[in-house]
Amino acid sequence: MFKYDSLADLVATATQANEPLSKIILREQAEATESTEEALYAQMERSLEVMRESVQEGLDPDKRSASGLTGGDAYKMMRAVQENRNICGKIFGDAMTKALAVSQTNACMGRIVAAPTAGSCGILPSALLTISESRNIPNEDVVMALFTASAVGMVIANNASIAGAAGGCQAECGAASAMAAAAIVEICGGTPKMCEHACAIALKNILGLVCDPVAGLVEIPCIKRNAAGVANAFVAAELALAGIESAIPADEVIIAMKKIGDAMSSTLKETAEGGLAVTPTGKKLCEKVFGCCQ
Q: CB of 145 within 8 A of CB of 187?
């Protein structure tokens, strides 16, 4: 039974078995939960379907969050892509669109998959759905990639944190970005070792990111950080698939993230007492929602 305390150990096991990470994770989880691989696969497949539904819901141009602070951005991004106005191409534009859409669904109290958290829920779905659509990847491969992503998330959770309140946004969007990067690599035919490098690169790129939600709501800047998070995941995956390695092993990057989170001021960990939350505009937006600045 895996302890999920070392990504390197999982990669070594998969490499020795000459299998992708997803297969060894699915097999081990079936044994650990005394379930069947078929049952666990069905559960993950349902999660993928909810991810798809959350994208569609978030594309509604007229939908606004209860606070009135956010809404409509995913539709704007989608239109820019459809009209060839975005500068980074269709895949990149589609990924940002989906990340914004899922995050907006969350802000509007819609159903999402916390992957690994609600605040970072747009990153993994947008990465996998975008790459699968662009490359006509079979649904089964997309579902299996979610098992690889989940393993990365479990290692991060066990050795550091996936909560903004504990480690800042590096723990939420950082973890989600690392999970997505590893999943993209596997779905594109990369090796387990490449998945490990992608995870490390994604996390390194986002170390130190604070959690400073305006008015204490998971909207500003959280929704746009999901778009940035999926962009980071694609960068990390591209580098790893090209054979570029992280000089610092993923497990060491995760520990570094934990230490950074521990050293971070409490005002920068989901308390809305620092960062963007206390800028003049941030305070005005808080007053707009609550009548007074918290």
A: yes
Amino acid at 55: V
Do the Cβ atoms of 250 and 203 come closer than 8 Å? yes
Residues 88-136 pLDDT 10s: 999 999 999 999 999 999 999 999 999 999 999 999 999 999 999 999 9
Q: How many C-beta neighbours within 10 Å does residue 7 have?
A: 27
Tokens standing for 8?
Answer: 């390197």
Long-range contacts of 77-81 (CB under 8 A, 24+ apart): 77/227
Kindly tell me the sign of the dihedral angle through the C-alpha atoms of 183, 187, 191, 197: negative
- pTM attached to this predicted model: 0.97
| CATH 1.10.4100 assigned to 7-290 | yes
* Sign of the alpha-carbon torsion through 221, 227, 229, 232: negative
| CB neighbour class for 165 (10 Å; exposed up to 12, middle 13-18, buried from 19) | middle
